Give the backbone structure.
Amino acid sequence: MIEIEPLELHFPYEHNKAITRTIELINDTDDYFAFRITTSSSLLYRTQPSKNIVPPRSKCSITITLQALVMAPEQCNYGASQFYVESTRVDKNLIAEDITEDMFDEKSGIVVDKVDLIVVLE
C-alpha cells in the first residue's frame, strides 16, 4: 500500500522542550490512499495532519510533536508509546474531511493496511 519512512521515531529528552519528528508517507502506486494516525500512548503527542489523502505517485509529510516533558522518561511511568498508521484505497474525489473511523474497519470487508511505528524515548 503506502510506504512509511522512518518506521522508528527517536525522541531525545530535553527538559521542558517539545521535540518534533517527521515521517513520510510515500505512495508509489496509481491509487489514492486515505490514512489516519493514532497512538496508544499516555504521553501527549500532536500529529499534523492526523488524517489525509495521499494521491498517486506522491508523498505526504507528517509532523509528530512530543509535548515538553518536565521529567526524564525513565523517571516517569509513561509506558510504551506506539503509533499506528492505517491506510486504505479510496476514490479520487474523497477529501480529508470525509475520512471517518468506519473507513478503517476491516469487518466491513475493506482492506486496511496497519503499520506500527516504534517510538524510542531517549
In short: The beta strands are 3-5, 8-11, 19-27, 32-39, 45-48, 51-54, 58-66, 82-90, 113-121.
